[in-house]
Protein 1
Amino acid sequence: MMIITLQIHRFVDEKNWIQEYKVELKKGMTILEGFNEIKAKQDPTLSFTSSCRSSICGACAVRVNDNAELACEVLLESLVNRYKTNTLVVKPLGNFRVIRDLIVDWDPKYEKMKKIDPVVEPKAAFSPEKGCKQSIEDFDKYKKYAGCILCGSCVSECNKSALNEKDFLDPFIFVKAAKITADSRDRSPADHLRAVVQAGLWKCLNCQECTAKCPKDLDPAGAIEKLKAASIALASDGSVGANHAKAIYNDIYTKGLLDESKLAVQSEGIFSAALRVPTAYRLMKVGKLNMFEKIPENKEIHQIRQLIDIAEKEDK
């Protein structure tokens, strides 16, 4: 018989503390079943959320040893084996306001989702009589993203949200935006794209934590990259992020090397880049930047261009 110790972070009436519970490990016992046993037999005041118990609703996500987990899906035994300990620390999801114990507030997240107008607006060709039919091929372009269960695991582990969530959408919202913009039935994908650009698309740190922690393998980081690529295709996207990506692409494709001394001007424009002159001066002073250096063409430029062309062809 193995006893599992769950050190659960409690939060009640603005008071925080860690409370320790011991649960007898049973074969096939999930984190959620551990919670239910505690609430039924040890402490009825412990608060958490759950519903389907089938990895469908996403309500039961928590952090265990600082990693987001779907409580109804993950076995306690697997966590013991992973961390080589029978003591597990349980916390509410990160980057959320905590309401009580392991319960977090979703309302601000849903409010942020409104920024992308998260509804498919049908094209004029559709009608109530004819419906909004599409081919299987068109459906396949976005069906993966339809699998988001709004569990919040991606938000919990997002480093950009932890740094500053005010100028950035949550990863699952970008997944929703990627789904809508790829939907052939929507009459104006460009409107959704402009909305995500304005809401901080290019501020993603590309840490991949959202993808690593998604229990449905939806790849939110990949969705963000697809949105970036789509926004670049919009002639109207003159954002700093888009210009930065274009500048890097042009340097690599034309010379095979990155000219970092010109990146600020190409990304932000002359006037905004001028504000960085003091930083550029300090870099030049210590030999880390040479504004007058001429970047030579990479000797293997032809192979580099071939790789880029192949990658673009495969992406299409």
Protein 2
Amino acid sequence: MNPVNLLLQPPMSTQLAPATDDIQLHHLLKQDDDATAVAELSDELKARLQHEIKIGLESIADPVVRELVQNIFSEVIRIFNRLSLIQQKLNELDTLQENLSILELLQFEIRYLIEFIEARAMYTPGVDQRLLETFDGISYGMSHDVKRVFERELTSDIRNKSIPVVYGKILHAHGLLSNCFQQTFITLLQVLNPKLDPLDLFDDFEERLRQSLLLCNELSALMRVVKQAESQPTPEVLQEVVDKSLEFRDGSMQYLMYRDWRGYEHHSLALITSIQSNLDSKNLLHQFACYLEVLYGHVKMRAVIRDLFPQSNDESDGDLDPQAPPLPS
């Protein structure tokens, strides 16, 4: 079925459960606008994104690969438009059903894009290794966030929840998807144009600063727990390592670049498995601590907070991207 036709269909007949807490609802609607801010697709932003896409595509000599990448950018722009539409309706309570319908459509379109990348883009002759790795990374990241949004946030019974709950779920899903596709866009564009400054792209410097500082704080807290476990490997401390590692994975990990997600999950999963199996985890604790220190050092080198950590400029590790922008959650 044509996605446009899906969007035009009337909303499902199931009604949202009536609100039971007017105070909670009032609080939700009075939240700072920055909490839901993803760059709205104004004419100025559209022109800026199209300009950067044009520059990026000009770096691709192979016409087949160029068309392939252009198609991916076009789908991402389409998703930006859907998210912008949701954002515009966030404070209109009588449009919650419509927002849920748009999100259902988004799920269809995002899964189509993931399938397109995995089944076609990854196997197109002429795609160089760096672009292949980028396709793999953004596909992995999108798949992770689609599962998180549509299998954990917007479950099948969402339309039976109270209005404040539905509003909160839509707000959170909107933020996660906005983060996901801003990062997807920037990651792909920077491969084509390494000179691109992501800070100039979406005009959300303050949000990126806030998210980067949050990420530094969370990484620092996790490092302290891991180091404590190295010197004091009691069952209670080891369990705290497990809990904090999972909490980071399900939360602040989204502010890392996609290519760092696998590294974090690899180290943390090995350590968690060892702890839960009552094995000697000393070496894995040390490896995880070293990995977190490198990761933390490079997060501090991001452009938005680099001046706050002048000592970080001497650190170097080409595998992690110090310029990776954190995006709204």
Protein 3
Amino acid sequence: MQQLFENWRRYLVEAKAEISDELTEIAVNSMLAMSVFRDEKSLNEVEAEQLKYLVSRAENPDPEVIEKFSESLYAGERSGFLTFYSSEQLARMDLYLLDGHDAGFAIKDGDDIVSVHNNSSLRGLGSEFMRKAKEVGGARLDHFDGFLSGLYRKHGFVDVYEIYQWDEQYKPATWNYDPVDILNSDTSVYSVALDDMVYRDPGVLPNVETEIAAEDDFKIHINPNLKYNSYKYGRPDVIMRKLT
């Protein structure tokens, strides 16, 4: 996991000036979310009930909460280089910050869950943040295919409504991201479709562009062999999800 974060750090620092703001935002939010979900422990009911949130709403921003949220968001040892949202941008979101802890999330544009982060000593916050985010209106999110795919699916974000395929022009010179297992349903939206296409002898995928049904029956044209190798060498696609 340590190497995973170091590779993400390298990617974001070097690529930020080269890739679109949207892709940078997705990359930042993906890395922050991974740091929340890397601990599989979950809070028990009593622990969850003891949590209290400081809130700033887009229609009535609270400057104190905005400042605390910004400090919390970029408090971690790996977060300083991830600065993406300004205080002005945060003011236009609904912010939820755990009182007394550097951990929380935001709702952008009414229903888009962003800035899920945990730079505190607390553990097991992933499920709690997803529960709370959905309770207050969060209904969609985006991420790079991989570690987060199975986790978000478990929390009800099973409607895949868009996929941005990897574009090599956005790759920084020293890209070295960990491989993603495209045939594993926990790490890929393509797993079921491609598993059915694997030639048992010699065990390779078709090397021709074709339309497939990815997760949630999302229709997309890909070259299965090229896509397999793209994931193998750490170039996953961006997945847009929402609740059903």
